[in-house]
Specification:
Elements: H1 2-14, E1 19-23, E2 26-29, H2 30-43, E3 51-55, H3 60-72, E4 75-78, H4 85-95, E5 99-102, H5 105-114, E6 119-121, E7 125-127, E8 130-137, E9 150-153, E10 163-166, H6 168-181, E11 189-192, H7 199-212, E12 215-218, H8 234-244, E13 249-252, H9 254-265, E14 276-279, H10 286-294, E15 299-305, E16 310-314, E17 327-328, E18 333-336, E19 341-345, E20 351-352, E21 363-371, E22 377-382, E23 387-388, E24 394-395, H11 397-405, E25 410-416, E26 423-429, H12 435-446, E27 455-460, H13 480-502
Parallel strand pairs: 3-4, 3-5, 11-12, 11-13, 13-14, 14-15, 26-27
Antiparallel strand pairs: 1-2, 5-8, 6-8, 7-8, 9-10, 10-20, 15-16, 16-17, 18-19, 19-21, 21-22, 23-24, 25-26
Helix pairs in contact: 1-2, 1-7, 2-3, 6-7, 8-9
């Protein structure tokens, strides 16, 4: 990350009093940030093991610790706070972590015992004015590709996520491209609403702003990124944070955007300082983007994957086409396989932790899409999620779900129809929505769909799909297998009852 670290050093010389990080009453200018990174890096020199895990909450120590590890040439392993103890234990073992830094030692002492990881607490260190505990972990080193600067664990679709190994050069290229595309300047104030351990926020919310001389504001709000399971006033809380921090930029997942739009539509005035709100992580319905625009929220959809070092394409104020995920950024190389699968080159990762093979060539994303004549990318669904009806019709569930999500009565929806004569859906309604309202919503969506893609029956969900119940990933994608397993018997009953009624 020499460009980012060099930029911080340059800002420390040319504009030392410029605010670099703010959280509540804590603030640090660029001169202090530069000094803090050098100090933390020196304190980590005795960490002989190359992989150091960060178990820190959003705040100054997380930002400084991450930069210090990059500066010292050690490999950073961010531990997502939304991971279960078993997933965090898996990440530590899989990446072969030798050290753990945390501002919550009691919690991690318990976690390490539960996961049977032998550890010794050594001398605490000071990072940005905060005392941070250090644990020496007795774990064998893992096989990591040469040049690995960060191992980021994707939320994925299973309980044992994979560790994506990224080089400093690739992360840096994405950060520079994001800074250029969003036209970030020292006047910007980026509010980090996602956990800093999330790669999208790590690169887009720390590296890009600091490269540009802007201010990073780690949020003290909700850190599970799971807006689907938050209180009814979550949108109002988001709007309040954006106003209170005078944020000019921020990153959201679709569920968070949905909550913010609803709050503004219900009378909460949008932030006057906000100029660029990026949304990504999962498909965002065009209708929601249109509602956001009408509400005065400057929202722009993008697309990326951890294996591509986060963002690959992005809509911008200068080139925005709602419904698309934008044009490739300057580091991006987007191509297509014969079946329409999106392939990405140049920004690809080095390989997975624990695997000996080193990646080369284009990355097969597993997403299906196309590019229009003006270079805007459209993602139409997941290759593996496509199902085939008993009539031999191929259906992308995201397409059908997108039409249903437009409807005001529907909060979340999962569509199923593999080897079936017609499609069903599991639906989470908005509070107060009646069954009749859902029936009418399905009818309205069906009018925009061909017969083979229409939904004929539905089940109400037991509870919202969420991180807590294992039915959402951290970035808002549905864990389709988990939802299918939970509702399989009831869906089978729906099909059987319809068969008997028409026999």
């Amino acid at each position: 990350m020499q460009s980012v670290l060099s930029a911080i050093a340059r800002h420390a010389l040319t504009s030392p009093s410029q605010s670099a990080i703010e959280k509540g009453r804590q603030a640090m200018n660029y001169a202090a940030l530069h000094a803090a990174v050098l100090s933390a890096s020196a304190q980590l020199d005795d960490a002989d093991h190359a992989v150091v895990a960060l178990g820190l909450e959003n705040g100054l120590p997380w930002v400084i610790g991450d930069l210090a590890l990059l500066s010292s040439g050690k490999t950073c392993l961010p531990l997502p706070p939304f991971f279960s103890p078993a997933q965090q234990g898996h990440a530590l073992r899989n990446a072969g972590a030798g050290w753990l830094l945390t501002d919550n030692p009691e919690n991690y002492e318990t976690l390490l015992r539960q996961q049977s990881i032998s550890a010794t607490r050594t001398n605490d260190i000071n990072i940005g004015g905060t005392t941070v505990a250090r644990f020496r972990l007795n774990l064998p080193p893992a096989s990591l590709p040469p040049g690995t600067a960060k191992v980021t664990y994707t939320s994925g679709t299973t309980g044992t996520p994979k560790g994506v190994c990224l080089s400093a050069q690739v992360m840096e290229s994405v950060a520079r491209a994001l800074a250029a595309a969003t036209r970030m300047t020292p006047a910007d104030r980026h509010l980090c609403l996602l956990p800093l351990a999330t790669l999208l926020e790590n690169i887009g919310g720390i590296y890009a702003p600091l490269y540009s001389g802007a201010c990073v504001i780690p949020s003290a709000g909700r850190q599970d990124t799971d807006a689907s399971n938050t209180a009814a006033n979550y949108g109002e809380e988001l709007a309040g944070m954006l106003k209170r921090t005078r944020a000019t930029t921020a990153i959201l997942i679709p569920q968070m955007l949905h909550a913010l739009v609803a709050a503004v539509e219900n009378g909460i005035s949008p932030s006057e300082t906000l100029r660029f709100l990026a949304v990504g992580g999962a498909r965002t319905p065009s209708a929601l983007l249109n509602r956001a625009t009408r509400a005065g929220i400057p929202v722009f959809e993008g697309y990326g994957l951890s294996e591509c070092a986060s963002v690959v394409t992005l809509n911008t104020a200068q080139a925005n086409r709602p419904g698309s995920v934008g044009r490739p950024l300057e580091h991006g190389d987007v191509q297509f396989a014969e079946d329409g699968e999106i392939l990405v080159g140049r920004s690809a990762f080095l390989g997975y932790a624990g695997e000996t093979a080193t990646r080369e060539g284009l990355w097969t994303t597993g997403d299906i899409g196309h590019m229009d004549a003006d270079g805007f990318l459209y993602v139409t669904g997941r290759k593996k999620d496509m199902f085939v009806t008993s009539f031999g019709r191929n259906v992308s569930p995201e397409w059908v779900e997108g039409e249903l999500m437009i409807q005001p009565a529907i909060r979340q929806v999962w569509v199923h129809g593999e080897a079936r004569p017609w499609n069903t859906a599991v639906i989470t309604t908005v509070p107060g929505a009646t069954s009749q309202a859902v029936i009418e919503a399905i009818a309205a969506a069906n009018r925009a769909l061909p017969g083979y893609a229409q939904v004929h029956q539905w089940l109400p969900s037991d509870e919202p799909f969420s991180l807590q119940n294992g039915e959402l990933t951290a970035n808002g994608r549905m864990r389709r297998g988990a939802i299918a397993a939970r509702y399989a018997a009831r869906l089978d009953k729906l099909y059987m009852e319809h068969h008997l009624a028409t026999a």
